[in-house]
Amino acid sequence: MKTLVVVAHPDIENSVINRKWLTELRKYPELYTVHELYRAYPDWRIDVAKEQQLLEAHDNIVLQFPIFWFSSPPLLKKWLDDVLTYGWAYGSGSGYRMQGRKVALAVTAGIRAEDYAQDGRYKYPLEEIFRPFEVTANYVRADYAPFFAFYGAESASDSAAAQLSGQDIERSAADYRAFIAALN
């Protein structure tokens, strides 16, 4: 079954890394369904039934986003709140439709990896910062997988973009695809 990549980037046109990742995944439409939330819902009115059907049609779900204030962009949070409903994602009746599906994160961090270390600038590793995503996946009985991260994206987005080479960006896209392939 194909992997669903739910992309929550409010400014994908000006993204370097996230846009490159999408370009790479779109080369393989037989393997990946790319679903861009900000394009699908510019008015933030989420079609819950459509989203639930999309999730049910995939065994692996990857949530791809740039880190915003040590979490996800707000539309992804709204999507989770709206789509993972009682009776569908958890609870009595026909709940737990996410059960057994792998859920992973793919994120771009504006800062360096060492800043997310216990002795770094922010004092918490991404594993800790993303704990709410892990708890959510566990709550709906999904299989939470490790995350994929690209660090230093802020330096890639300024026009100088000098700190990241084209090779680094290309390699990140290939590594991202390998990460997703390993979910199976």
TrEMBL record:
Where does the Flavodoxin-like fold domain lie?
A: 1-162
Q: Which UniProt keywords apply?
A: Oxidoreductase
Give the highest taxon in the source lineage.
Answer: Bacteria
Keyword Oxidoreductase belongs to the record? yes
The keyword Protein transport is assigned to this record: no
Q: Which Pfam families match?
A: Flavodoxin_2
Which Gene3D superfamilies does the entry link to? 3.40.50.360
What protein does this entry describe? NAD(P)H-dependent oxidoreductase
